[in-house]
What does this fold into?
Amino acid sequence: HTMFAARRALSGAIQQRAFSASARDLSKVTVLGAAGGIGQPLSLLLKLNPRVTDLALYDIRLAPGVAADISHINTKSLVTGYEAGEKGLDAALQDAEIVLIPAGVPRKPGMTRDDLFNTNASIVRDLAKAAAKSAPNAKILVISNPVNSTVPIVAEIFKKAGVYNPKRLFGVTTLDVVRASRFVSEIKKTDPVDENIVVVGGHSGVTIVPLFSQSAHQDLVGEPALLKRVQFGGDEVVAAKDGAGSATLSMAMAGARFAESLLKAAQGEKGVIEPTFIDSPLYKDQGVDFFASKVELGPDGVAQIYDVGKIDAKEQELLDACLADLKKNIEKGVKFVAENP
Ligand code: NAD
Ligand code: LMR
It folds into this structure.
């Protein structure tokens, strides 16, 4: 606390005056995995966001370097890079309002997201332990794959630490919405900014369920090539990068957009709605404890969860397939923490 306060005091009288004393207006955002393919452009976009007042960058390598570079950008926020290790991690997390987690390995061609589980589960578990200790009230935004399993891992760790609040844990599925909206605009020759396709379920293959019936383009329901692009858009990028990783730049944009939505909602804006993968009551009766659907965001995180609403029969089939897969992915995450606490 004191280090954070001291740094803030040093950051200049003009800046001090520009911000009100209200804690709401002081928004520290922390990126864990900040030197990676996603982490670097994500940190850059967060530095450009005037709602962010403190930007804390942590990685097991290069975070101080990335922070030094980004800190020269002439926006108000204070950027700090932390050394690898427990001390740096705890300091990066202290007082954070939002913690974004893009730490972990990306796919190579031929891999599914689930193939990343063995490596990324323990990375996310360990970062979640640190967050439960040093930022128990932060909103946690999980980007690391497989999201369908890493989000339940964070939930289990927070439960064990006695600090779990389901309103503050989010799997970031914004990229699916971004892609669906872009792909539709390519077909319909519309402005992609005006498209906002609802995507529900999870974040991998058949668990990704776009609801074109709820858009202005009913005729796109059941269009096989479009559905495949939305469900396997990640694979397009993995193939094109040919062994050098997966989506990083579009993901950085999507992560920055979701963080911005949470900051807007925290600062009092109403009607901020984003699909996101959360601890959800919608399909708990079917044994599916986490589900992405439209969520209204508020100052405390999740304000209201929307059910999927009226959907086409073809979409219902997709949803049934989604739920079957999702259940297994979620159970895998929960089992991992039980067996590897
Ligand atoms: P990357 O390898 O380029 O970067 C990952 C970074 O994490 C590296 O800098 C690495 O040093 C760091 N890291 C590893 N272990 C760490 C730890 N214990 N603490 C802190 N940092 C650690 O990978 P990338 O392309 O940035 O992808 C990161 C993850 O995001 C992957 O799992 C990928 O599958 C996932 N991803 C998710 C989405 C989504 O829509 N949710 C989209 C794209 C990628
Ligand atoms: C994506 O959707 O691009 C990410 O989940 C990365 C991947 O592995 O496809």
